[in-house]
Amino acid sequence: MEQFYQLGWTLDSAGGASGEAYMAEQDGQKLFLKRNSNPFIAALSAEGIVPKLVWTKRIETGEVVTAQHWKNGRELESQEMA
């Protein structure tokens, strides 16, 4: 993820179990970055279930990074998902 720092992006951990999700910010633009996300995310994005994919890039380590528009949100409680 060093390449994003070099391009002037600020990265903050977005939490999660994998530790591979970040909020990236540059010049007021916010993106959700995820390393090695599930390829199914493209299908979910195309159907409008998750935010639109902005781009997908393979970085120098061979990992694939996907970027989606950042959406402010909150964690759902279990009773909200029933």
Automatic annotation (TrEMBL):
Signal peptide: none annotated. It comes from the Bacteria. Keywords: Transferase. The keyword Transferase applies. InterPro entries: CcrZ_PhaseVar_Mediator (IPR052077), Kinase-like_dom_sf (IPR011009). One of its GO terms (molecular function) is transferase activity. The keyword Transmembrane does not apply. Coiled coil: none annotated. This is Phosphotransferase. It comes from Staphylococcus pseudintermedius.
